[in-house]
Amino acid sequence: MGSGFRLKFGTVAIIVQTVFIVLFATLTEYDWRAHPVYSDPNHPSYTNDTNLAFQEDNESISHYVGRKYPPFQDVHVMIFIGFGFLMTFLRRYGYSAVSLNMFISSLLIQWAMLVRGCVYEGIFKGNKFQVRLEEMVTADFASATVLISFGAVLGRTSPLQLLIMGLIEVIVAQVNGYVCHDVLHAVDVGESMYIHAFGAYFGLAVSRVLYNKHAQSHHKGESCYHSDLFSMIGTIFLWMYWPSFNGGGSEGDEQHRAYINTYLSLCACTVITFAITALTDKKGKFTMEFIQNATLAGGVAVGTTANMPLQPYGAIIMGCVAGLISCIGYRYITEFLAEKLKIQDTCGVHNLHGMPGVLAAIAGAVMAAMATQEDWGVSLYEIFPYRAPKPDDITNEFQRQFPSVDVESGKGWSAGKQGGYQALALAVTLGIAIVSGLITGLILKIPIFDQVNDEEELFEDMMFWNVPEEEEEGKSEVELAARKYIQDKNGTQMTEKL
Amino acid sequence: MGSGFRLKFGTVAIIVQTVFIVLFATLTEYDWRAHPVYSDPNHPSYTNDTNLAFQEDNESISHYVGRKYPPFQDVHVMIFIGFGFLMTFLRRYGYSAVSLNMFISSLLIQWAMLVRGCVYEGIFKGNKFQVRLEEMVTADFASATVLISFGAVLGRTSPLQLLIMGLIEVIVAQVNGYVCHDVLHAVDVGESMYIHAFGAYFGLAVSRVLYNKHAQSHHKGESCYHSDLFSMIGTIFLWMYWPSFNGGGSEGDEQHRAYINTYLSLCACTVITFAITALTDKKGKFTMEFIQNATLAGGVAVGTTANMPLQPYGAIIMGCVAGLISCIGYRYITEFLAEKLKIQDTCGVHNLHGMPGVLAAIAGAVMAAMATQEDWGVSLYEIFPYRAPKPDDITNEFQRQFPSVDVESGKGWSAGKQGGYQALALAVTLGIAIVSGLITGLILKIPIFDQVNDEEELFEDMMFWNVPEEEEEGKSEVELAARKYIQDKNGTQMTEKL
Amino acid sequence: MGSGFRLKFGTVAIIVQTVFIVLFATLTEYDWRAHPVYSDPNHPSYTNDTNLAFQEDNESISHYVGRKYPPFQDVHVMIFIGFGFLMTFLRRYGYSAVSLNMFISSLLIQWAMLVRGCVYEGIFKGNKFQVRLEEMVTADFASATVLISFGAVLGRTSPLQLLIMGLIEVIVAQVNGYVCHDVLHAVDVGESMYIHAFGAYFGLAVSRVLYNKHAQSHHKGESCYHSDLFSMIGTIFLWMYWPSFNGGGSEGDEQHRAYINTYLSLCACTVITFAITALTDKKGKFTMEFIQNATLAGGVAVGTTANMPLQPYGAIIMGCVAGLISCIGYRYITEFLAEKLKIQDTCGVHNLHGMPGVLAAIAGAVMAAMATQEDWGVSLYEIFPYRAPKPDDITNEFQRQFPSVDVESGKGWSAGKQGGYQALALAVTLGIAIVSGLITGLILKIPIFDQVNDEEELFEDMMFWNVPEEEEEGKSEVELAARKYIQDKNGTQMTEKL
User: Closest approach of chain A CAs to the CA of C402, in angstroms?
Assistant: First the structure.
């Protein structure tokens, strides 16, 4: 580690945060539902909207806030407790895992709002970005993308590298999301493509560039008994609140389906994970790494189709396949990637987010290609607005049957076309993630960013943290004494192992 | 442990999960509030209900989902974090406690939906089971019953035994619930009888059959410093979210009362637990086992009466009595049961769920026997529908005063009759739980299910888990060296103790 | 510790709880939204309100409960998991931290309801205190005040002292809140003055009186590796749910702003904390104490102004300043207070709650002094009702523009006057907190309350807890053997250090 870390990290963080203040002051404002209500018609913020809110005497706003807030908090817990503690499984990297997770997310939540403002709301055209509860969810989502990539390189990067990686990745990921969603019109309610697959393959590309031979079979790259239990806190909060991740942004029956499908998929995935971890183990025993991670693959795999009418058994099948794929990944593929392709993956994000994300995308494309008005009813047009007839082709009968469908928005897409664009979005996502990840990796290798290189620096909190002394030096005073005593009496023969 | 555990457990889990897929495909469908809305009147799913939903443009569904989802997530946290971490108090059984808790619940949530479909919805008559948010809560509840029984035998069973026990217990518990609720018309809003008392006495009966003399005063049957703190995570999440357990399924003023009563009962129970644990300890010190468990008895004890007008002081008294009983149980009764009756109870579920569950049932019977229209108003008929006059006896005056009471549902039951049926439900529950528990215990003793027998197998994760090496062999490399050195130099004299 | 601790603590706790039962029975009742609905017009509880509820058929109550309950549960988690685990950072005081936190809160929640009834609802006039969901939040808030003071003296008091301190502090804090809010009309939506500043300065005053020279640089006054991770559970839950603390009690756009402002302030505060902890450290490393605490200062600092139109960038600036101040406190001020002023502060509550609370109050006074109708619209009168014109000065134009403003409540206060009263409330709060804290400290020094005095009693669970044997005696059997062996062979030379 460069000796200038102290100045560099702190200074960069303060500069970035200061820039954020300036950008927030010039580019953002409260959404009308958070504005103070201006009654003066001459006030620049006086609009029909705020006027409406005024007349409705806070009732409609209270409903909006009351309905959006609980799923937001669930997602918030997933980001800060879920991802944070999931990554504490390393025996000597718990401080970094949970704390840098918190730092990165806090920074990128702000950055995501600014970037999304530029990408989605035409800030360049002079519009201000409207901050509201829904944007708190999407900002949390945006940081999740980076946390997934963080998992791939966990223990092998400096905080400064993470900061730089995060700033870049949020921009690329938001542009990718915009292209896929707003240009290709591929839907992804739980963002399994745009967050999970993107974050995983971006992180793996970065990891490839940062390949470090010392990290291979590193004894600190493993868990200890209590670190595994801390990790389970993360696992279980992710597992429980995943329905909010996949369904928090929907409404009505779509949201209800997203909750049911995600819940059932995760249950089935968990059962299969326990079965596969035992069946494929030499001694027939369970392995915590599988339980901590593969049990969650069901949430990723059902992400793109969560709001679609999969039926309960369909959601369960999706969870089973996800658990199977993820377990196979942890058992066989992670080692293959590390040894043959030099792609190290500390948390196995390829198995938890990468492959299940691709599975989700494929399932989404297949569902889209099979969706008919007969089976899906009005949900077809709510989920795929371009499937509605073109404005000129709208019949009176259609309008009578589907009064809630916007007659202007349809493009008359066929099922096959929608399915094709869904598949195209996957390809675009993977391509952008891998290319931008490789470039980002090269940037991170610039020595100024304090790449962690030596064996004793890897997976080690002491590199960047003041660790309580007792722990640094050994387990206890007795141990210290024992260590010294053995050394004194026994010479080098015994102590080589220590 | 049989050497074939690997194949057996994994194969059974996969078979069960596969059967679930087939059953879900044939027996379940989305509730109309999760259906895609079918506009085609010729579609088999087109009904007045879905039509209604369609017309209401998702508003009513969004309200339904928005109101039911937060308490569901609270219960979900209780099941997976609450029960899971509560049981991590054993020093060498944390992996099993939190992970098998997750496995069992994931499996039984699915099973409970299928079983409930058969028991409640007449699947045999060709109806499909309607999956919706409320059924996600009841499925979580159903798994709680088994988790309580799991607590009684914790550390003394194989995963395969747990799986078999769970599949059986869910069926019996759901039938018991149906008999007590739908046949005897005994109410139990927080299911203190049907979940807590049932789960406890079922588990104790199983435990009696599986009695293992090695488990008596086993040194691994205790906690260590950090395992006690992990356990407190479970305790506190259970404690905080218990109002959602008792009140999540209610509406209006009933729900409001359930929240208030449970909250106050738990506070009072906690104060009393601290007092009793100190007063009855030889050195006057607190004991974590009491804090981890007896503080929760107030939630169980108020379960049956939570939605009744106990008044705040009534809820507080209930909590005090529960804390007292539970502490006495942990101090004196657990040991008595184990030594005299050969009923071992690892987590003390008899003290936390058994006796407080019986207390709840008795309180429910007493409240029912004292309920009058004068004091309870319309709540009397909302809580006990059979107390309403028979259809022929309904007067105009009654209808004017209670327009919301269904004039068809009353049976003219007296307060005493309702109280009697409440008491009868308790007796039925205890009888079914104990008998079915004993039978289940005998089934679990069949050698094929890998009963844990030997002393070194008990309360030990290493039996079924790959535990990180450092931990298996000793605390640290220094310790290993010390151990070896001492052995070398000192011969057998010293090392006998190690 | 006095040998009579056992009898004293338990007896006092039982007596207090018994008195609570009597007071609850005589002084409280359910709010009308939790009452059973009485249809009999002659019943004493039959009122227009309950009649209304009856007619509305539970819908309005369900809305009320559904909207208030999720933020309540978030606050509940902050109190019991958040404060509880935050304080487990001490290596040998985890049992006490998390459990006494639970005990104190459970006791004081009940006490707060009774005290608030006396202070706010005129129980002396024969009114009963109405228990409802909102009062569950305020009761949790009231216990938070004491938990903050608990943090100042953590590890240096007996449970009995905490109990006495809590009973006194709740009374004084509620009176202070009443004076500031209902007499001075100073607003404080997140109670940064009335809870955070009050709790901190009260606790510091108590701590000054209980000054113990042995506690200075005590080796058990530090963390160990895993205790730091437990502490992060508390930190993160506090951090995530803080928007509910600041906004849970509001409605409409005010609530929405409170959520947004708190969220952004905390993100910015976290970034700045990481920067400052590295920049001011000799080795340039991060320190967990800062991450665990200073990251939260953004929630305190924005507490008074959370519902005001700060704009997103304003909230971010507030968070930055809070993080800066809090870090400076942890780096320099805590030691200064302990060494120069003999004010020991185990958790650094002065840095997390004290100074940021004062900052919040100053920000509130400044915002109030700058608030204009032009910028704030109707929010001006919703947040500061006294700013509305006096009844005689209400014009038709005003009524047309602000139909929701109560024409009777205005006092025609100017911005400056409101700002002045805000500042006055801060001064009153600090004065009352410090004086009452000093007096309370003197009371706690009465020997009957078992003051912890000796060096080995400090920061040590074994004082009041049965700690598992292995932990009491040393780390493991191997260590015991090593210790003995070294002692035997080596004589005193080596073992002096042990």
Answer: 7
Q: What is the ipTM of this complex?
A: 0.92
- Domain spans, chain A: 70-376+410-455, 470-498
Model pLDDT, residue A475 = 46
Q: What are phi and psi of C90, to 5 degrees?
A: -65, 140
Q: How far apart are CA B280 and CA B33, in angstroms?
A: 54
Q: Give the CATH superfamily of C70-376+410-455.
A: Ammonium transporter AmtB like domains (1.10.3430.10)
Mapping DSSP to helix (H, G, I), strand (E, B) and coil, where does residue A97 land?
helix
Closest chain B C-alpha to C97 CA, distance in angstroms = 10
CB contact under 8 A, A43 and C374: yes
Q: What are the CB-based long-range contacts (under 8 Å, 24+) for B241-245?
A: B241/B74, B241/B75, B241/B77, B241/B78, B241/B82, B241/C73, B242/B78, B242/B266, B242/B296, B242/B299, B244/B70, B244/B71, B244/B74, B244/B75, B244/B78, B244/C73, B245/B74, B245/B75, B245/B78, B245/B190, B245/B299, B245/B303
Q: Return the pLDDT at A456.
A: 86
Check whether B108 has a pLDDT greater than 80: yes
Question: Which among C6, C61, C484 has CB closest to B281?
Answer: C6
Average pLDDT, chain C: 90
Burial of A479 (0-12, 13-18, 19+ CB in 10 A): buried
Partner residue opposite A274 with nearest CB, options B13, B80, B470: B13
CA distance B229 to B219: 19
Gap between the Cα atoms of A496 and C100, Å rounded: 46
Average pLDDT, chain B: 90
Question: What are A64-80's pLDDT values in tens digits?
Answer: 899 999 999 999 999 99
B87 reaches A (C-beta below 8 A): no
**C-alpha to C-alpha distance for A356 and A304, rounded to whole angstroms:** 11
In this prediction, residue A350 carries a pLDDT of 98
Q: Which residues of C touch A7 (CB under 8 A)?
A: 279, 284
Residue C37 has pLDDT above 80, yes or no: no
Q: Chain centroid to CA C76: how far? A: 12
Number of helical H runs and strand E runs in chain C: 23, 2
- Residue A279 pLDDT: 96
What's B65-106 look like in SS3? Answer: HHHHHHHHHHHHHHHHHHHHHHHHHECCCHHHHHHHHHHHHH
CA distance A158 to A165: 11
Is residue C71 within 8 Å of residue B70, measured between CB atoms? no
d(CA A318, CA A301): 7
pLDDT tens track for C259-307? 999 999 999 999 999 999 999 999 999 999 999 999 999 999 999 999 9
CA distance A281 to chain B (A): 8
Q: Distance between CA atoms of A466 and B268, rounded to whole angstroms?
A: 42
Average the pLDDT over B216-229 and give the result. 91
The CA-based dihedral angle spanning residues A421, A426, A428, A430, taken in that order and rounded to the nearest 10 degrees: -170
Neighbouring-strand partners of residue C223: C90
CA terminus-to-terminus distance, chain A: 25
> What is the helix (H) or strand (E) element at residue A130, kind and residue range?
strand A129-131
Neighbours of chain C (3+ CB pairs under 8 A): A, B
User: Nearest by CB to B69, which of A237, A259, A402?
Assistant: A259
Looking only at Cα atoms, what is the longest distance across chain C? 97
Q: pTM, whole model, 2 decimals?
A: 0.94
Q: Is the pLDDT of residue A411 over 80?
A: yes
φ, ψ for residue B29 (rounded to 5)?
-155, 170
B73 touches chain A (CB under 8 A): yes
Residue count of chain A:
498
CA distance A128 to C310: 16
pLDDT tens string B155-211: 999 999 999 999 999 999 999 999 999 999 999 999 999 999 999 999 999 999 999
